[in-house]
């Protein structure tokens, strides 16, 4: 049974930053955070990164406890790589619409309809989908990994159709796409983006490949969150319109305080470009997760072992 809420009679300490640092030392814990986490969590993390960087950190950490400030599939990946370590997720409900768009039973049937295909799955999927895959990829390495597969080998790409289409364009390969998508990256409005660019003609548009083709075709640079961050540092422009979850802007602004970063506008005037799953984690929940050593990620060993192989292939092919 997971403890998801702190005992109601106990108040969290006033200085959560100091309390978390103390717990980190006591537990020999490392805090890994995705760029889409709220600024306070990014500021206390030992490592902030995108999915590839986070899985590489999870694979190499010496810490006994991994506190994963991200969504469920990310913490699950850390557990797949570290069966002996305790992996904590501040809020177990922090899921992912993209991972949810690929149910394992349906995907197994889809795979059976395409005999002879290998399966390359984006890391944003459940452990069960990873276990049905041959190679895992991230948005950082998807193009490079597909380029390493012999041209005559047919490939199923899952679960993100937008990233899949982007990989097809970049590699000239014909991939069989699972039709999944991310609710956040499909929310950007092409019309509003063009309007914003008219107001800031000097700005460069940076976009994540999970965005729809209509948005990507206006981008000056397309890449993973880490690639977008790095690009905005080496570009000679001062202003950037950023088409991905706006959590990354905290790092961009921290590293480049003299530059201007404008979030790309969503379709409605809602904050729906913020990932509701990522934002379930808070500094307070992070504290309680460490204090209670729960919620903890656990996995059946056969699933873990089957999911490990395609991740290890990715890590080996990414060097
Ligand atoms: S931004 Fe999209 S892909 Fe990333 S965790 Fe949120 S729902 Fe999933």
UniProtKB/TrEMBL annotation:
GO terms for biological process: 'de novo' NAD+ biosynthetic process from L-aspartate. Keywords: 4Fe-4S, Cytoplasm, Iron, Iron-sulfur, Metal-binding, Pyridine nucleotide biosynthesis, Transferase. It is found in: Cytoplasm. Its main location: cytoplasm. One of its GO terms (cellular component) is cytosol. Binds 1 [4Fe-4S] cluster per subunit. Iminosuccinate binds at residues 34, 51, 122-124, 139, 208-210, 225. One of its GO terms (molecular function) is quinolinate synthetase A activity. Its cofactor is [4Fe-4S] cluster. It is an enzyme of class 2 (transferase). SUPFAM superfamilies: NadA-like. It holds the Pfam family NadA. Its EC number is 2.5.1.72. It catalyses: iminosuccinate + dihydroxyacetone phosphate = quinolinate + phosphate + 2 H2O + H(+). [4Fe-4S] cluster binds at residues 96, 182, 275. Pathway: Cofactor biosynthesis; NAD(+) biosynthesis; quinolinate from iminoaspartate: step 1/1. Belongs to the quinolinate synthase family. Type 2 subfamily. PANTHER family: QUINOLINATE SYNTHASE, CHLOROPLASTIC, QUINOLINATE SYNTHETASE A. Catalyzes the condensation of iminoaspartate with dihydroxyacetone phosphate to form quinolinate. This is Quinolinate synthase. It comes from Prochlorothrix hollandica PCC 9006 = CALU 1027.
């Amino acid at each position: 049974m997971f403890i998801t809420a702190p005992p109601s009679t106990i108040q969290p300490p006033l200085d959560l930053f100091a309390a978390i640092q103390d717990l980190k030392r006591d537990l020999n814990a490392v805090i890994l955070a995705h760029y889409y986490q709220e600024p306070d969590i990014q500021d206390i993390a030992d490592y902030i990164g995108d999915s590839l960087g986070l899985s590489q950190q999870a694979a190499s950490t010496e810490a006994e406890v991994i506190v994963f400030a991200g969504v469920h599939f990310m913490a699950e990946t850390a557990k797949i790589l570290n069966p002996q370590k305790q992996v904590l997720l501040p809020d177990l409900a922090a899921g992912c619409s993209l991972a949810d768009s690929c149910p394992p039973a349906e995907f197994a049937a889809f795979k059976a309809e395409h005999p002879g295909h290998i399966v390359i799955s984006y890391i944003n999927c459940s452990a069960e989908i990873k276990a049905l895959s041959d190679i895992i990829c991230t948005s950082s390495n998807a193009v490079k990994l597909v380029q390493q597969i012999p041209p005559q080998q047919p490939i199923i790409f899952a679960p993100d159709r937008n990233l899949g289409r982007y990989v097809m364009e970049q590699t000239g390969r014909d991939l069989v796409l699972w039709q999944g998508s991310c609710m956040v990256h499909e929310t950007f409005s092409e019309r509003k983006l063009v309007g914003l660019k008219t107001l800031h003609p000097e700005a460069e548009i940076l976009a994540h490949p999970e965005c729809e083709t209509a948005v990507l075709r206006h981008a000056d640079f397309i890449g993973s969150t880490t690639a977008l961050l790095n690009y905005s540092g080496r570009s000679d422009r001062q202003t950037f319109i950023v088409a991905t979850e706006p959590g990354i802007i905290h790092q961009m602004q921290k590293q480049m305080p003299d530059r201007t970063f404008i979030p790309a506008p969503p379709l409605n005037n809602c904050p729906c470009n913020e990932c509701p799953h990522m934002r379930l984690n808070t500094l307070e929940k992070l504290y309680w997760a460490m204090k209670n050593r729960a919620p903890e990620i656990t996995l059946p060993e056969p699933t873990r072992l089957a999911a490990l192989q395609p991740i290890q292939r990715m890590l080996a092919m990414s060097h």
